Structures are given as C-alpha cells and as structure tokens.
Amino acid sequence: MPRPSGHPTLRRTVLTLLPSLAVCALLLALYLLQPPLLRQLDNEIYDLFLTSRQAPPPSDVPVVVDIDEKSLTAYGQWPWPRYLLARLIETLTQNGAACVALDILLAEPDRSSPDLLRRRLCKDFGVELDLGKLPPELADNDVLLAETLARNPVVLGVFMQFDPYKNLPSPLPRPTGLAEQTPAGAPPPRETVMRAVSALLPLAVFSRETPVGAINVAPSNDGVVREVPLLYRLGDNIYANLSLRALIRGLDAGTMILRSGPEGLTEIRVGPYRIPVSAQGLMRVPFKGPRGVYPYYSAADILERRVPPEQLEGRIVFVGTSAAGLQDIRATPFDAVYPGVEVHAAVVDAILNGDYIARPDYTPGIQTLAILLAGLAAAAVFNFTRAFIYGPACLLLAGCALWGSGHLFAQGQFISPLYVILTILAQGLCVLPVRFWQEEKQKRMLRQAFSRYVAPEVVARIAAREGDIFAGEEREVSVLFTDVRGFTSLSEKLAPQQVVTLLNRYFTPMTACVRDSGGTLDKFIGDAIMAFWNAPLDVPDHARRAVTAAVRMQHLLRELNPALEKEFGVRLRIGAGLHCGPVYVGNMGSEDLLDYTCIGDTVNLASRLEGMCAKYGAEVVVSGDMAARCDAAFYFRALDSIRVKGKSRPVSIFSVHEPEEARRREAEFATTAEALRLYAQGDFAEAGRLFDGLRESSRESTVFYEVYSSRCAALCANPPEVWDGIWTFNSK
User: Fold this and answer.
1) Partners of residue 196 on adjacent β-strands
2) Euclidean distance between CA atoms 687 and 716, whole angstroms
3) Taking the CB of residue 697, how many other CB atoms lie within 10 A of it?
4) Hey, is 24 helix, strand or coil?
5) Is residue 63 classed as helix, strand or coil in its secondary structure?
6) Residue 29 burial (C-beta neighbours within 10 Å; 0-12, 13-18, 19+)
7) What band does 163 get if pLDDT is binned at 50, 70 and 90?
8) What DSSP character marks residue 255?
9) CA angle, 356 then 317 then 350, to 5°
10) Which residues 6+ apart lie within 8 Å of 731 measured at CB?
11) What crossing angle do the helices spanning 601-616 and 703-717 adopt, rounded to 10°?
C-alpha cells in the first residue's frame, strides 16, 4: 500500500517562507547589534518626528542672557573683568531672577584685578602702583565676584572630563544633594551614571559657597545634540548638570531623588517634577525649534537696565554667549548653529512642561514582535500576491509602522519604525530579484542607449513610459541664456586645447547649478548656455529657481576665477538673461537625430535680454514677467522699458539683486527709481542731473548710470516729438 504523500502544499509554503524567516532573524540580529549606520538612521527618524510634531508652547521660566556681539562691542572683548560679571549677576537678581546659571568657566584668576596689576608692575618694571585711594573691595575682582556669588542664587559651570590620564581635582566642589531609591536587585544609581575622571572647576574662592553644574552636552556621532546627561559621578560624588542644578536652586528644592530599575537609573525627581532618564542619566531634549525659542536679552541691555524687571522676575536665567569666536555653538535637529546656552534652557523648559521623549522599558519586546509580524506579512505579500499589489501593500505596512511610531511619539515615547521598514525592504530584496530581472534589464538597456543623446530627465521619462514625449507639448517655462563677455578676444590668447579645457572648467559648475535647481540643460552654444525650467518635469516655482540659479552662477564664477586666472591668465565675466512664458517643448530635429529643446517667442526674448547685460552693466537681466513671479526672494531694480531688435511689443527689464545688497544700496536704488520716473515723464534735464550724481557717487559699476546720462543729454539736445518712455534697440 503506498505511503501518503503528506501535505506538499504546506511543505512548499514552509520552504518558500524559510528565506523570509532568515531575513527576520538577520534584522533581529541587527537590532541587537545596533551598527553605527543604523543608529544614525534611527537618529534621523527621531529628528524627523521631532521637527514635525506639534510641540507644546515653551515655558516662560527659562530666559537667556546673551554675551553677544553687541555686548562685546559695548564692554570689550572676552573675558570681561569679574566685577562686570558681578554687576550682571546683581542686576539680574535685583530684577527678581530666581536663579542665575553661568554657562561660563571661571577656572582662572582675573588678570585685570588692580591688586594683580600692582604686583605685576612691581615685579616686571619695579614700579609701585599706589592703590591707597581705591576701596579695598575693588582691589581684587575675584574676591568681589565671590562675595556677589555668596549672596545671590547662582550656579557656576564646570566641565567634566573623561580623559583617563587626567587627575581628579582636589578639593572637589560641594556635590548636589540627593537621596537614592534602589529596589532589591537594582544597581545603585551612582554605579550607572556617567563617570568623569576629572573636571575643569571654578576657582575655589567661587565654588566654596556656590553650587556648580556641568555644562557638558552629549552630541551623537554626527555632532547633533539630541540628549543631555543630567548627572555625573566625579570621585564618590554625584553632580547635576547646569540646567538641572539651576532648576533645583530656582525651585529651592535642595535635594533630588534618584530612582533605579533593573538596568540602572530610571527617574530623577526634583520637587514635584519626575524626569525620565536612561540608565546612564541621559535625557532626550525635545527641542521646540531653532534658536530663539526662549527670550534672549543682550548682556549689555541688562547691565544698562534697559530690560523691564517684570521680564526677569521669577525666571531661571542662563548666561552664555552666541558671539562668533567664543565656540559655544551646537547643532540640534532644528538648527546647525544653536547656542549651547539655549540647550540648558530647553532642558529646564522640558522638565517644567513635563514634555519628555523617552524609550519605554518594553521597547526591545515591541521591536522584536514588530519585526516578526512585518516580516511575515511582507513575505506573504511578495510570495503569494501579484505584482501590482506589492507597492500598495508595502506602503500600507510601512505606513502603519510610521503611524504607530508617530502616535507613540506624540505621547512622549519613541519606538523607531526603522527596523520594521528595513524588514519590509529586505523581504522585497530577497524575494523579488528574479521577478524583476527581465524588466530591469530592459530599462537598463534603454537608459544606456538614450543617455548618450538626451538629458537624464528625458531618459527617466522614456524608461517610465510617461506618455508619448516625442509628440511634444506646450508649457510655460522659464528660459535662461548666459554668455561669457569678450570670450572671442580672450580665446585668442590661448591655444585651442586650452580653450577647450577652460570651457570644461567653466561649464562643469554652471551645469551643476542648473541641474541642482531643477532645471534642464538645453545646449551649449559656443561659450553660451541655454537652460529652461518646468520641462520635462513640473517645477511649480520655476521662475524663482531660474533666477536663483542665475545669481548662483555669478557667485560660482567669482569663486572659480582665481583658479582660472592662475592657470590660464584670464578672468571670466558672464551675463544672464531670463524670461518666462509659453513655449513648445519636446523632441525636435531630423528623423536621424533628435534634440529635446524648446522653441517660441519666449526663447528669443530671453536670448535678447542676455544681450542687454553688457549694455546696462548688469550681471543678470530679467523680464517683468520673471520679476513678478519671484515675489520677495530678490530685489528687482528697474532698468528700462525697451523694444528689442525684431520685436514690436515693449518689455520692462530689471536687474537682480540679493536682499543684503538691496539694503546696503537702498538710498542709491531709491534715487535711481526717482530718476527713472522723471525720465519716463520726459523731464530729461532733471533725470540727467540725478543720473550724473549717481554715476559720480556709486561704488559699483557705473555703466547703467553712464547710459542714462548720455541718453538724457542726447534727448535734451534733441527732444522727441512724442515720448512714451520706451527705448528701441536696432541691434542685438
């Protein structure tokens, strides 16, 4: 009697799922190992969630007193005399500050103290400086500051060091008061918090009576600050960081309570506030935005009592610096240039608001279950459904993971969706290669064949079969023409091979600029470039992108010119003309050779506007249509209303200026506008007088003013019978 064949369908199903189970095992191993690349991706996802969330409004308790450029201008370079810091602290506390935290190291004696200067003068020059009339309390700035610290609610900054070759400082400052709650079987908190080997401490005269807090932060490997250690162990003592210590003093809490769990520290309690932390005592900082979320006051304004007391009363004040060169700049998920002092303000804000982002203790179990479920679901999709289901199903699975993580994040818990998404992707990579091999081979051949003749954007559309692109279409585009000024005479000085090399060096950054801004490079015409935006792909803000690219080209050329001058002995200058309007765009040419390009009156006018650059001494000339579509991204100075050669309809033209330049030349541009108004009204004498004055006073190119000075003089000598303010050009 034959043996039963069993369940072949079940066996096939199991064999089919074995690779998928192996993928799940691989992802679980990666989750346990946490390789650096995946840790960085996890951080990027955290940053995305943080910057996208609806954060609660910031607390009004933390404020920042900034030793900024204004303060350095008013009171001299850093470091300031200690009596000035004493004045700053006294002023803040007199205005009602609950605590003043100095994000500053006071590790060295004040070199500007009168008594120290007296001793140095006597030692170095034998000169005895008489300080008899100086009040004794002003003889030593450090003593003066120490007395100020002793009678005011201040926290000093220390910097913890982890170099094993450093020695433990002695004597240590007064530790932070604490009580420990350690359940049975849990390690004491002091065994798991970050252990410093040494520290840069304030002078003993300062820290004898004044509490200290660590100013360290803990940037990730990419240099971005996402979390801050709230506690450090130094010797046998525990010290809070500056923000936590300032909060303790501001609340007059005195003692903090540390609670442990099986893995180490879990919670810090300060007064009524419970702060969830990692086993090492690190707290994720839920930043609420770029710098400036919390009130900033210049130290100069505080010293000169220009800040109303009610804006400081009851506040925890962090004193630090954002001035260039003082090196207290950090990167956060919101801002690459974030003052370090504001990190401490953000920590206090999070504690007071109860706004925490923590990894729950059950995170490993949730991640393991999510990886297994997502892996099996993705395996079922890729193995047992048709191809058109793959995309929607994977997007649905990934969307569920993102939604779940986002929902938990809004509740203050971060469980990353990264490993679920990687599991889905890995399942696809494991199952689908054979299914998609033929289609990918065909696309690869198509790309290789066409990439030699047309732009990559066109190749992408051909490969995707997005309609019949050979038929062409009518679209509104922004067109750019650039041309090198006087290139013919420049090239006469060079050998042909040098000309080719020079053009290659010039074209490379220029074409990259077009591509980076979403434009399509049409062609090179000798030393000229033609490009357009909004075809073949939609670019909603194509006019602004085109103008931005033209301005960026001028910047790139200025950066490139020193190298070109050194190598070829020439400096290049380019003009750019831009216009936007309807064109016919598509493949054009013969049956044997096609070119993806655009034609129409818009293209012709853009080419003519490029020729206006030299006539008006402008780097970039745009039509009124372009200027109207760019809003306030740039300042557009009116140049003229003209009829170019071959055109009967007039066009208004403008030169392009960046906002900073426009602010610098505001008075000049206002006078220019008035002169143009008089010129348009036919008052050539008064307009000429203004243009003459501008020509003599301008520090920039005077070609524009010279054109109008000459034109006004000619029109005064030969007044036109009918004047409409439009100038006609009979040559290109």
Assistant:
1) 234
2) 10
3) 12
4) helix
5) strand
6) exposed
7) confident
8) -
9) 5
10) 645
11) 90
Express each pLDDT in 291-319 by its tens digit: 999 999 999 999 999 999 999 999 999 99
Query: Which amino acid, residue 260?
Result: S
pTM value is 0.57
SS3 307: coil
H/E stretch holding 280 reads: none
pLDDT at 135 over 70: no
In angstroms, rounded to a whole number, what is the distance separating the alpha carbons of residues 360 and 443? 46
The answer to whether 198 and 167 are in contact (CB under 8 A) is yes
**Burial state string for 544-569 with b = 16 or more CB within 10 A and e = fewer than 16:** bbbbbbbbbbbebbeebeeebeeebe
In terms of DSSP H, where are the helices of 4-113? 8-33, 36-52, 69-75, 82-94
Task: Round to whole Å and give the CA distance between 720 and 1.
Answer: 118
Strand ranges across the sheet with 237-240: 194-196, 231-234, 237-240
Q: How far apart are CA 677 and CA 671, in angstroms?
A: 10
Assess whether the previous peptide bond of 536 is cis (omega < 30° from 0): yes
Q: C-alpha 258: how far from its chain's center? A: 37
Task: Round to whole Å and give the CA distance between 503 and 83.
Answer: 62
Note the pLDDT tens digit of each residue in 103-133.
999 988 888 777 766 666 666 666 666 565 6
Condensed to tens digits (0 to 9), the pLDDT of residues 667-721 reads 999 999 999 999 999 999 999 999 999 999 988 888 999 999 999 999 999 998 8
Please provide the distance, in angstroms rounded to a whole number, between the alpha carbons at the two ends of the chain.
Answer: 100
Whether 429 contacts 390, CB under 8 Å: no
Name all contacts of 84-88 with Cβ < 8 Å and 24+ positions apart: 84/303, 85/145, 86/141, 86/144, 86/145, 86/147, 86/148, 87/303, 88/299, 88/302, 88/303, 88/319
Checking 419-423 for CB contacts under 8 A at 24+ apart, the result is 419/27, 419/30, 419/31, 419/38, 419/367, 419/370, 419/371, 420/370, 420/371, 420/374, 422/27, 422/30, 422/38, 423/23, 423/24, 423/27, 423/371, 423/374, 423/375, 423/378
Residue 19's pLDDT is: 75
Asked whether 536 and 595 are in contact (CB, 8 A), the reply is no
* 597 beta partners: 586
Three-state secondary-structure class, residue 222: coil
Q: How many CA atoms lie within 13 A of 451 on its CB side?
A: 9
DSSP labels, 652-717: EEEEEE-HHHHHHTHHHHHHHHHHHHHHHHT-HHHHHHHHHHHHHH-SS--HHHHHHHHHHHHHHH
pLDDT at 691: 94
Token pair listed for 247? 């909060």
**How far apart are alpha carbons 628 and 626 in whole angstroms?**
5
User: How would DSSP label each residue in 561-601?
Assistant: HHHHHHHHS----EEEEEEEEEEEEEEEE-SS-EEEEEESH
**How many angstroms from the chain centroid is the CA of residue 600?**
40
- What residue type is 304 in one-letter code? E
Higher pLDDT, 89 or 324: 89
Confidence label for 377 from pLDDT (cuts 50, 70 and 90): confident
Point out the least confidently predicted range of 193-202, 268-277, 438-447, 477-486.
438-447
Contact 215, 230 (CB under 8 A): no
In this prediction, what percent of the chain has a pLDDT beyond 90? 55
Length of the chain: 732
Closest CA to 285 of 344, 231, 331: 344
Extract the tokens encoding 302. 């505080």
